Amino acid sequence: MIDRIGDDLGFYQTTLALRQRRQEVLAANIANADTPNYKARDFDFTAALRQAMDGGGSMHLPDTQLALTSVRHIPAKAVTPDPAPLLYRQPLQPSMDGNTVDMDVERVAFADNTANYQTDLTIISARIKGIMAALQQ
């Protein structure tokens, strides 16, 4: 039963991690709105979530064990691939300095992602309250 609860909450954990990653990307775009030759980045949230869930339901790979030939070697951890490869945003109107950040597009995407993040938190909270109520009876 605990495994089923973990699997269910694992989806939401992955969703929140991707939303947080997208928020960082959008914030970087907004922060660099005046940087010459800065290229705005973003990723397809739906495709990234689908890829993360098809990969076992988590954005993390199991630890990789390497053969150590000396006691002085440092054990290595697996490098996790980026579940959301960043793409360049196509500018609607090119600027003279080569910057592709459109503040209107970035603000809308930022606000939309924030609202979706808050919605996901509300859903997780309701799920946990439902599980707690079921366990208390």
Write a concise keyword list for the protein shown above.
single chain, 137 residues, mainly alpha, two-stranded antiparallel sheet, 3 helices, 2 strands, 54% helix, 3% strand, flat, flagellum, Flagellar basal body rod protein FlgB, bacterial flagellum
Describe, in plain words, how this protein is organized in 3D:
This protein has 137 residues and is mostly helical. The protein has one domain (2-59, 80-92, 100-136). 54% of the residues lie in helices and 3% in strands. The chain is built from three helices and two strands, in the order αβαβα. The chain has helices at residues 2-31, 45-54, 103-136, and strands at residues 41-42, 87-88. It is flat. The model is unreliable at 56-61 (pLDDT under 50). Residues 13-39 form the Flagellar basal body rod protein N-terminal domain. Belongs to the flagella basal body rod proteins family. Keywords: Bacterial flagellum, Cell projection, Cilium, Flagellum. Structural component of flagellum, the bacterial motility apparatus. Part of the rod structure of flagellar basal body.
Task: Describe this structure in a few short sentences.
This protein is mainly alpha-helical.
Topology diagram in text:
Elements: H1 2-31, E1 41-42, H2 45-54, E2 87-88, H3 103-136
Q: How are helices and strands ordered from N to C?
A: HEHEH
User: Structurally, how many domains make up the residues?
Assistant: 1
Number of strands: 2
Structural class from helices and strands?
mainly alpha
DSSP summary: helix tally = 3
Helix content: 40-55%
User: Which stretches of 5+ consecutive residues score pLDDT under 50?
Assistant: 56-61
N-to-C span: 16 Å
Mean pLDDT: 86
User: For the largest beta sheet, what order do the strands appear in spatially?
Assistant: 1-2
The shape, in one word, is flat
Main beta sheet, described?
2 strands, antiparallel
Strand percentage: under 5%
Radius of gyration, in Å, reads 20 Å
